[in-house]
Amino acid sequence: MNLAYYVNYVTIVEEGSLTAAARKLRIAQPALSNQIKALETAYGARLFYRGARKLELTDAGQILYQKAKWMMEVETEARNEIASGFGGTKGTLRIGITSSFENERLFDALTAFADRCPDAEITVYEAELPELLKKLQNGKVEAIFVRPIKSDVENLEVLYTHPDTLVAAYLPGAFFGEEPGDTTTFERLGELPLSMLERSLPAFKNAFREKGLSLSPKYVSTRMQVALNWARAGKAVALVPKSATEALGFCDLAEKTVSDSDMLVPAMTIIAQKRKYRSRIVNNFLNLLSERYGYQYTEPIDGSDREKGE
């Protein structure tokens, strides 16, 4: 199917009528009508409800509209990347972060990238982990920056993990009383009401089980801010990465490091698709991160396998 048909289809949908679209595109209205009929024949489904004053999309029409817009974005990115001589200085960098993810290191890198590539556009999607994984798998983003305790999703790979420290965050003066020191243990935490992230729960249960302890958290949430708010309210001790309290504005909380924890607590984990072509622009950004923060990044070779021995 001619790509122009999809471009014109998007214009028809967004203008709301064939007449307005024909005027904007400077194409005769009968020609646009014939293109719609050709698309409906090709996909075997009606795209618009007939008879309405303003064109209304059917379910099939809505699906095609979203996919047609995506095809237009891909074409634009390809043109920009080729026009920039494969330098990766133009186009759109699309990355995703979880709603609980705040990281000065990432923003510093984005700022440096904006300085290095002033013609590039930067889009940061914020969503919960399942939605970001979906966007990554369908190509809406090329890399996501998250804090997962564990990621075993097929066809995805962890490019980099920066470890953090597990701390027990709590309202000063609460729970630990006059206990000295800046550390605590799982055994002591098992005596207290705990707040934690839902996605961290399996890892914490395993950690407690390895110590011969059981875990029954008082408060479980899907957002880091909520877990820390329970601590701020004096209702619980929040088990969180150390970097989260400062990044999310909870510096008023007291902290104790969990001394007997050997859990990997990533402050920043970068996940991308395995052995998949990545645009020059995202490779440039990942290389910038590598330069600034010292982790190893090897670009996919010819859009497929990486170099042996990576």
Describe the structure.
The longest helix is centred in the first third of the chain and has 25 residues, at 59-83. Strand 9, helix 8 (201-210) and strand 10 form a beta-alpha-beta unit. The chain is α/β, with parallel strands linked by helices and 310 residues long. The protein starts with a helix and ends in a 17-residue tail after the last helix. The chain has a six-stranded mixed beta sheet. The protein has a five-stranded mixed beta sheet with strand order 4-3-5-13-6, with helices on both faces. Mean pLDDT is 82; it is low at 302-310. The protein has helices at residues 3-15, 18-25, 29-43, 59-83, 104-116, 129-137, 186-189, 201-210, 224-232, 242-247, 280-293; strands spanning 48-49, 56-57, 92-97, 121-126, 143-146, 156-164, 166-170, 183-184, 194-197, 219-221, 237-241, 254-258, 265-273.
